[in-house]
Design goal:
By secondary structure, this protein is of the alpha/beta class. Helix content is 45%, strand content 23%.
Length: 154
């Protein structure tokens, strides 16, 4: 599974100007609704429900909110680099500025976990995160996200 299987250029937001976790999730749900054709509120509700189970702020300024939707046919991602870091209640208590939202169909099973692992591997790469933080256009961010595919294959 490649990042290019999850994110399209329309699913990249930079700089996302929000001041709270809720605002970030709302803005990303809006973008995800545009990309998937699903209801924005349904996406937002799934994300909030998942956050109630425990934060998806994984540390080092990164969050990977995710959820499953019965009406979704394939997995979709939305990536945002925030204009300013926000409190995301991360496990390391550090603010978040890189967010990768992942949505999967209810039927995704292990593929959902594989996609989460793939996103996690990408964002654990400190060099990649530095590049993402230093990039100012959606096109350049998208290029960076999918360029990792070539280095993973090598």
């Amino acid at each position: 599974m490649d990042i290019s299987d999850l994110v399209t250029p329309d699913g990249v937001m930079v700089p996302l100007k929000v001041s709270s976790k809720k605002q970030a999730l709302q803005a990303m749900a809006r973008c995800a609704a545009h990309v998937t054709g699903l209801d924005e509120r349904a996406i937002f509700d799934v994300l909030l429900e998942r956050e109630r189970l425990g934060t998806t702020g994984v540390g080092n300024g990164i969050a990977i909110p995710h959820g499953r939707l019965a009406s979704l046919k394939t997995m979709h991602g939305v990536f945002a680099r925030l204009a300013r870091p926000i409190n995301f209640e991360s496990i390391d208590e550090q603010p978040v500025d890189l967010i990768f939202l992942l949505l999967a169909p209810d039927t995704a099973g292990a593929d959902h976990l594989k996609a989460l692992a793939r996103v996690s591997r990408l964002l654990r790469d400190r060099s990649m995160c530095e590049k993402l933080r230093g990039t100012d256009t959606p096109e350049a961010l998208y290029g960076l996200l999918i360029s990792n595919r070539a280095s993973q294959a090598a």
